[in-house]
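Help needed: design a sequence for this.
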């Protein structure tokens, strides 16, 4: 399997996509073709464990870049850290509606599914090249903990994770500061998340520094982060196919950067019988406006109770656009430039719009609806859900015509205690592991929002 950049560079192999993250021309890597599973192969998935399914689905995309025994080991180790034997169990919510629980990993959010895989893959790939790398990232909450869990104790990687001082939840902060990894450096920046992001951007554009420390990122544009997310779409289908005989499934996906929803699209391209991918957004609705009104224009980010979806420019959307434009890198480049200049993407044509609408549906969920969904789920079903999951579920409930539907539960409600209390007046008890974590000693440094200071801190610590 080979990969090309959405802006024309390539072809390259899987290994290069891991080391590069973003392609050198600023585009995103996509596979040159989508390997299709046959009907028999699909049927056989029902007999496979999550790990074996991950192996089967991902292997063709990885090719010679990782030997098969190494890959199997990485997968087994990654998903042994999940606290449910099914890894991403599918539970029935009501007739023709299921929740897929993606939050059984070490940091209770679906990003673990990807990061537990990406961490060891990056470590292995660097090892093969005899290289070391410095991961530099900014987080507002969920990505940082998942990345740290996936990368702690990697021998050839140091991790510097910037987060806004006093602006994450206590659990999110503790998940970063108590990892115990000698290679992990959480940095509490005296500023906002935007300050953190700006500093990271500046560091990456300092090419001499970037080269000196071999800086790399683990944000959601990395192909090796998307790939493992494809697996659970196949998994859900394999576990409930007997209950939906003859019907195609819809997946409702609480969406921010469009990584998760795009993974569903990939699964569909690889042969999974999907009726529709329902893109569920909170008030930050750029994707909903695109699918409904052909309007992809940037508006101000508004803070919501589902902060991991508070995003206006959905970075993975470029991958879908590439397919919409018939994989024409020149058209893509031109239109992305327009988008950059005008904060507005030129409209796609009617045919193209029809085509994406035959795959994607979208729905926007307000703050009030989110809270209502959380409380309704608790009172009528006795199922406690987090605000991100609530956005997906509310969208699914608003589109009964798309059933049967699996709605993605992307975070554990424990992670968002204040929204939970507001919606249900409930406070969940920590389990033993979390209790222990909250009492552990924290390691982090507080730094001013100055790129020079943070650059020097990184140089002093690698
Ligand atoms: C990151 C995240 C999302 C959004 O996923 P994307 O792949 O960015 O669309 C949804 N819910 C939770 C809990 C998340 O952490």
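Sure. Designed sequence:
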């Amino acid at each position: 399997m080979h990969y090309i950049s959405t802006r024309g560079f390539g072809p390259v192999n899987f290994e290069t996509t891991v080391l590069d993250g973003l392609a050198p021309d600023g585009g995103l890597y996509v596979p040159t073709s989508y390997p299709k599973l046959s009907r028999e192969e699909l049927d056989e998935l029902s007999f496979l464990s999550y790990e074996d399914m991950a192996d089967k689905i991902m292997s063709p995309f990885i090719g010679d870049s990782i030997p098969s025994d190494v890959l199997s080991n990485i997968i087994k180790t990654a998903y042994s850290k999940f606290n449910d034997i099914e890894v991403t169990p599918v539970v029935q919510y009501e007739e023709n509606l299921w929740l897929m629980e993606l939050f059984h990993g070490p940091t209770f959010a679906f990003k673990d599914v990807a990061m537990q895989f990406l961490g060891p893959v990056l470590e292995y790939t660097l090892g093969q090249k005899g290289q070391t790398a410095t991961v530099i990232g900014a987080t507002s909450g969920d990505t940082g903990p998942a990345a740290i869990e996936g990368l702690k104790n990697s021998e050839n990687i140091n991790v510097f994770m910037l987060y806004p001082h006093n602006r994450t939840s206590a659990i999110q902060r503790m998940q970063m500061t108590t990892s115990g990894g000698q290679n992990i450096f959480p940095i509490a920046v005296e500023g906002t998340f935007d300050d953190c992001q700006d500093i990271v951007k500046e560091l990456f554009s300092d090419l001499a520094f970037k080269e000196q420390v071999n800086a790399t990122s683990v944000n959601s544009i990395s192909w090796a982060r998307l790939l493992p997310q494809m697996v659970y779409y196949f998994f859900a289908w394999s576990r409930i196919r007997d209950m939906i005989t003859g019907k195609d499934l819809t997946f409702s996906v609480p969406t921010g950067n469009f990584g998760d929803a795009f993974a569903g699209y990939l699964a569909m391209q690889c042969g999974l019988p999907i009726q529709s991918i329902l893109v569920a957004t909170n008030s930050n609705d750029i994707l909903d406006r695109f699918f409904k009104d052909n309007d992809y224009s940037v508006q101000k980010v508004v803070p919501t109770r589902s902060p991991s979806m508070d995003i206006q420019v959905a970075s993975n959307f470029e991958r879908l656009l590439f397919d919409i434009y018939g994989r024409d890198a020149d058209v893509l480049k031109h239109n992305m430039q327009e988008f950059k200049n005008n904060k507005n993407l030129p409209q796609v044509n009617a045919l193209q719009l029809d085509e994406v609408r035959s795959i994607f549906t979208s729905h926007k969920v307000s703050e009030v609806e989110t809270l209502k969904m959380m409380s309704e789920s608790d009172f009528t079903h006795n199922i406690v859900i987090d605000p991100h999951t609530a956005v997906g579920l509310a969208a699914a409930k608003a589109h009964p015509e798309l059933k049967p539907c699996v709605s993605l539960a992307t975070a554990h409600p424990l992670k968002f205690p204040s929204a939970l209390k507001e919606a249900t007046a409930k406070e969940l008890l920590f389990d033993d592991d979390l209790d222990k974590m909250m009492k552990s000693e924290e390691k982090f440094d507080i730094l001013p929002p100055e790129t020079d200071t943070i650059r020097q801190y990184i140089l002093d610590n690698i």
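The pocket of pyridoxal-5'-phosphate is lined by residues 109-111, 142, 220, 254-261, 308-309, 388, 410-411 (CB under 6 Å).
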